[in-house]
Amino acid sequence: VLMANRQTVGGYPRMGEVASVDLPLLAQLPPRDTVRFEPITLESSQKLYIQRERELALTRESLRQRMRTCEHSPT
Q1: Which of 9, 12, 30, 65 is a good FRET partner for 55, with 20 to 30 A between their CA atoms?
Q2: Threshold 0.85, pTM exceeds
Q3: Which runs of consecutive H residues, i.e. helices, occur in the chain?
Q4: Rounded to an integer, what distance in angstroms lies between the CA atom of residue 19 and that of residue 27?
Q5: 57 within a domain of the structure (yes/no)
Q6: How many CA atoms lie less than 13 Å away from 45 in the CB half-sphere?
Q7: Count: domains in the chain
Q8: Region at 66 (left for phi over 0; alpha for psi -120 to 50; beta for the rest)
Q9: Contacts of 8 (CB under 8 A, 6+ apart)
Q10: Is the pLDDT of residue 3 over 90?
């Protein structure tokens, strides 16, 4: 799998592309770890991305609320 530090020129076959929603997970795998690819449609990839963005937005909001609670609690 070629990531951000891949070759700058072509000449190698492209068998597929990793959905952008999964790139952070792929980047964190240790060397020689097993990876399984499965075909998905562009529409499915976009839905997964939107779902992940919503989950991240909910997590951020939850953290903001907790930080506000901590700021207002007596120490």
Answers
A1: 30
A2: no
A3: 23-27, 42-72
A4: 12
A5: yes
A6: 12
A7: 1
A8: alpha
A9: none
A10: no
